[in-house]
C-alpha cells in the first residue's frame, strides 16, 4: 500500500483521453452504420426491414457488457485468433451505437409530414432526390438532439470497457485504488471528470431544444 499522490491524479486525468476516444470512435462509426440501418428500417422491402429490425433488437436487447465479453472471448474460440481490448470494445460500441442511432434516424424519418414526400412525387422527383433533398436534411435536424443525448450515454457507458482490460477512466481509477486504497478521493475524482465531460453536452442539448424546437 502506498500514498495517493499528485502523479496519481495526473494519471486519472490523462485517462480521460481514452474515454473520449472510445466514445468518439463508437459514435462516428455507429453513425455510419446507423445511416444504413435507419434507411433499411424505413424501407418498403419487408426482407430489408426484417434484417434491420433483427440487428436493432439484438443490440438493444442484449446488455452492452455481454456484447463486449462476446467480442473479446468469442474470436479465440470460433475464429482461432485473439483480439485486443481496444478492438473488442470499439467494435461492440460501434454495433451498439449503430442500432440505437439507426432507430433514432428511423423515428426522425417517420416523423416527417407525409405530404412533403407525396408532393415531391407529384412534382416528378426521383426517390434519391427526395431522400437527399427533402428527407435526410430534415431527419438529421430532428435526430440531432437525441443523438447528442445518446453520445452522453456512450461516454458514461465506456466505464464498462474495464471488464475486458481496456484502460480508460474507470479502469485507471480502479488500478490506482488497488494500490493506494483511497476510494472516496479516487472515485470522487473519476465521478467529477465524467460530470465535466457530460454536463456541457447536456447544456448543449438544452440550448438546441430552445433554438430548434422539434416541430415539423
CATH class: Mainly Alpha
Beta-sheet strand percentage? under 5%
The CATH superfamily label reads MetI-like
Largest sheet: none
| Alpha-beta classification | mainly alpha
Rg calc: 21 Å
Q: Report the mean per-residue pLDDT as an integer.
A: 89
How far apart the termini lie comes to 60 Å
> How many domain regions?
1
The succession of helices and strands, N to C, reads HHHHHHHHH
CATH-assigned fold name: MetI-like fold
Descriptive account of the structure:
With 216 residues, this protein is mainly alpha-helical. It has a single domain (6-211), classed as MetI-like (MetI-like fold, Orthogonal Bundle), CATH 1.10.3720.10. It is built from nine helices and no strands. It has helices at 6-14, 16-41, 46-61, 64-79, 85-110, 114-122, 127-157, 169-180, 183-211. Helix 2 (16-41) packs across helix 5 (85-110). The radius of gyration is 21 Å and the shape is flat. It starts with 5 loop residues before the first helix and ends in a 5-residue tail after the last helix.
Summarize the structure.
The protein is mainly alpha-helical and 216 residues long.
Write the layout of secondary structure elements.
Elements lengths: L5 H9 L1 H26 L4 H16 L2 H16 L5 H26 L3 H9 L4 H31 L11 H12 L2 H29 L5
